[in-house]
Amino acid sequence: PQPNPAPNQDPPSTGGSVPSGPGFTSGVSYSPYNADNSCKSTQQVATDLGKINGYQVIRLYGTDCNQVANVLAATKGSNVKLFLGIFDIAQVQKESETIANAVHGDWSRVNAVSVGNELVNKGTDPGAVIGAIGQARSALKGCGYSGPVVTVDTMMAMSNHPEICKASDFCAINCHAFFDGKTPAEKSGEFVKGWVDKIGQATGKTVVVTETGWPTQGDTNGVAIASQDKHQAALSSIKEALSSNVILYSAYNDMWKKNGPGTFNAEQFWGLNGNAPSA
To answer: Less packed terminus of the chain by CB within 10 Å, N or C?
Structure first.
């Protein structure tokens, strides 16, 4: 169902200018899908983003559902920058052009562009990812973009394959203490910072955490308990340990995802703000 437009809705507020690439002090990820996997409308995206503010960077994962244009429209008039994503490395040119068409030449709204999400972790050859980074950098440059281009992967994949970091303009890692099973929520910040330091020292590059958080419900994983209280404890710990270059996962629960034992039946429940208001 289409929600009614909110009256006099203000765009998300950030305060001050936001850098391109590393250096931002707050970020959150967002996905524009309904529970049935259909695309959210322009108005639904505006409703969702109108209910969150205080973030300098919003991370998107792909270019489907007109999401780049919709999120740019929803955040117009604010200082929010987008951490954009080319999801399919077999469609780099097409997705680059989709991004370019959405920004209409105003690349100042873009913080960075990622090429793939956790591809090496899922078994993609690192060489293929490195090739896609180069292809994207060239395609985006041809469209007028000269900002950072990276691939995003898990901290383990990035640590085991530092070449994908070295091919990127900075290291971008998804790092979730919950899946460690040996780290309680209250130690999440220490866990994530440990990986940031390790990968930064190994590569000599700045590390940006492109996903981190804690589920509000799901199965217990060792000492990692999924609950609302533990979610808040984890976020507090992360914010205390890392004051910049962190994108929290996720703005809302992702009810379009499927829960399963491999992710402790918590896959849908990482939202910082519960279910999306446009749901």
So the answer is: N
Instruction: Report the amino acid identity of residue 2.
Output: Q
pLDDT digits (tens, 9 = 90+) for 222-254: 999 999 999 999 999 999 999 999 999 999 999
Return d(Cα 181, Cα 63) in angstroms, integer.
Answer: 33
Whole-angstrom Cα Rg for the chain: 18
Cα–Cα distance between 246 and 224 in angstroms, integer? 21
Token pair for 2: 């289409």
For the stretch 60-96, pLDDT in tens is: 999 999 999 999 999 999 999 999 999 999 999 999 9
Other Cβ atoms closer than 10 A to 163: 15
> pTM to 2 decimals?
0.93
**CA–CA distance, 190 with 68 (Å, rounded to integer):** 33
3-class DSSP state for residue 200?
A: helix
**Selected catalytic residue, list 186, 211, 240, 267:** 211
**Does 186 qualify as catalytic in the annotation?**
no
Chain center to CA of 127: 23
